Amino acid sequence: MTKITCQLAVDLNLDKARLPLMGFHKVDGVRGVHVTGGLTGRSMDPFKNSAIVAMFADPVYTGFDGEMTIDGRLTGQDLCSLTTGLMNRAKVKKGEEGLPFSVLWNLFDYLAPDIVGLCYFERYQALATYLQNTVCDNVNLLPFTWIYNVEQAEAWIEKCLAEGYEGAIFRDPQAM
């Protein structure tokens, strides 16, 4: 069996990129992936917060890869640090009955065993179909915009920043 690890972001040289690209908003949260039998971070180590790990323990979430945020937020000051703090809390604090925030898993890739060998666009389509036909609480499929040239890419980056996102992500639809 092939070992699956998280693909990390790298800077993109738009002048040399293979077009078209899929453009996504860069959500400023915490990476979450479910490929080793449970929810882990990008390091493939489980989160310390057992309540969040349990929330996404069901095999229905197998193969999901995305950015986790709190209270359904996709933008905002300190979103990453707030989400990181929640993921790393090992216990519920005194006086709290449960998690102080709701968790939203903003999905952008699908790494299920029977899907992982497909190109990115096919994995994204498989994820969209899966989510249409399966009940998965607390998840959101991040939409994308087709980018056909450098000018559109630069405009997409500016739009994402103006809307309060951390930036933009571009994916090659044909890449593995």
Q: What this model shows, in words?
A:
This protein has 176 residues and is an alpha+beta fold. 24% of the residues lie in helices and 21% in strands. The chain is built from 4 helices and 8 strands; from the N terminus they run E-E-E-H-E-H-E-H-E-E-H-E. It has helices at 50-55, 79-87, 120-133, 150-162; strands spanning 21-25, 30-34, 39-40, 64-70, 103-110, 139-141, 145-147, 168-171. The strands form 2 sheets. A 5-stranded mixed beta sheet has the order 3-2-4-5-6. A 3-stranded antiparallel beta sheet has the order 7-1-8, with helices on one face.
Number of helices: 4
Q: Uncertain runs with pLDDT below 50, 5 residues or more? A: none
Kindly estimate the percentage of residues that lie in beta strands according to DSSP.
Answer: 15-25%
**Major β-sheet strand ordering:** 3-2-4-5-6
Alpha-beta content class? alpha+beta
Q: Quick check: average pLDDT?
A: 86
What's the Cα radius of gyration? 17 Å
Q: What's the total number of strands?
A: 8
Give the % helix: 10-25%
Overall spatial form? globular
Order of secondary-structure elements = EEEHEHEHEEHE
Biggest β-sheet: count, sense, barrel? Answer: 5 strands, mixed
Gap between N and C termini, in Å?
A: 17 Å
Topology:
Blueprint: E1 21-25, E2 30-34, E3 39-40, H1 50-55, E4 64-70, H2 79-87, E5 103-110, H3 120-133, E6 139-141, E7 145-147, H4 150-162, E8 168-171
Parallel strand pairs: 5-6
Antiparallel strand pairs: 1-7, 1-8, 2-3, 2-4, 4-5
Q: What's the quick description here?
A:
By secondary structure, this protein is an alpha+beta fold.
